[in-house]
Amino acid sequence: MRQTGTIKFFNYDRGFGFITPEDGSKDVFVHVTAFEQAGLPAPEEGAKISFIAEDDRRGRGKQAAQLEQV
């Protein structure tokens, strides 16, 4: 299910950040490779983004994938 949220934090040096979903659910991890795969520029804190929350391959919870600029 596609969600919309705001980039809460992004650490460019480490290549990851978090998105706060508009529905008030728990923040979702996002890795820089998700932006690269979507062909999007480097994320800016406060920017709106839509995404699909998928299970992390390492079992650490949800992470954002299939990003789209809003």
From TrEMBL:
<dbReference type="InterPro" id="IPR052069">
    <property type="entry name" value="Ca-reg_mRNA-binding_domain"/>
</dbReference>
<dbReference type="InterPro" id="IPR012340">
    <property type="entry name" value="NA-bd_OB-fold"/>
</dbReference>
<dbReference type="InterPro" id="IPR012156">
    <property type="entry name" value="Cold_shock_CspA"/>
</dbReference>
<dbReference type="GO" id="GO:0003730">
    <property type="term" value="F:mRNA 3'-UTR binding"/>
</dbReference>
<dbReference type="InterPro" id="IPR011129">
    <property type="entry name" value="CSD"/>
</dbReference>
<dbReference type="GO" id="GO:0043488">
    <property type="term" value="P:regulation of mRNA stability"/>
</dbReference>
<protein>
    <submittedName>
        <fullName>Cold-shock protein</fullName>
    </submittedName>
</protein>
<dbReference type="InterPro" id="IPR019844">
    <property type="entry name" value="CSD_CS"/>
</dbReference>
<keyword id="KW-0963">Cytoplasm</keyword>
<dbReference type="InterPro" id="IPR002059">
    <property type="entry name" value="CSP_DNA-bd"/>
</dbReference>
<dbReference type="Pfam" id="PF00313">
    <property type="entry name" value="CSD"/>
</dbReference>
<keyword id="KW-0597">Phosphoprotein</keyword>
<feature type="domain" description="CSD">
    <location>
        <begin position="2"/>
        <end position="69"/>
    </location>
</feature>
<dbReference type="GO" id="GO:0005829">
    <property type="term" value="C:cytosol"/>
</dbReference>
